[in-house]
């Protein structure tokens, strides 16, 4: 059974002579790619944020952003923007955010 597992693993790694090194290299490459994706997502979030802020409308001293975004963008924005917003106005920001999430689902 262990021999079958080892054989399968070697096949997955193109019959590498040093399976441990091949696995380690794959793990390192995966970590590097993961970091690149995270950087890309951060850049996109900043671009979306800037675009939304440009279109913000001032209503009685409150900036209101009206937009329909795919849920994936809302999730990306929530990780950075909402946490900063809640530091300054937790109840108001949360209420608006919940409304935005509900509106996006319908």
Explain this structure:
The protein has 4 helices and 2 strands; from the N terminus they run H-H-E-E-H-H.
Précis, in short:
The chain has 106 residues and is mainly alpha-helical. Helix content is 76%, strand content 6%. It has a two-stranded antiparallel sheet.
Structural class: mainly alpha
Helix content: over 70%
Uncertain regions spanning at least 5 consecutive residues: none
Largest sheet: 2 strands, antiparallel
Strand order of the largest sheet: 1-2
Rg for CA atoms: 23 Å
Compute the average pLDDT.
77
Overall spatial form: rod-shaped
Number of helices: 4
Following the backbone from N to C, one meets helices and strands in this order, namely HHEEHH
Strand runs, count: 2
Strand content: 5-15%
Please report the distance between the alpha carbons of the first and last residues: 51 Å
**Oligomeric state:** single chain
Secondary-structure blueprint:
Elements: H1 2-12, H2 19-54, E1 57-59, E2 62-64, H3 71-88, H4 90-105
Antiparallel strand pairs: 1-2
Offer a few descriptive terms.
106 residues, two-stranded antiparallel ribbon
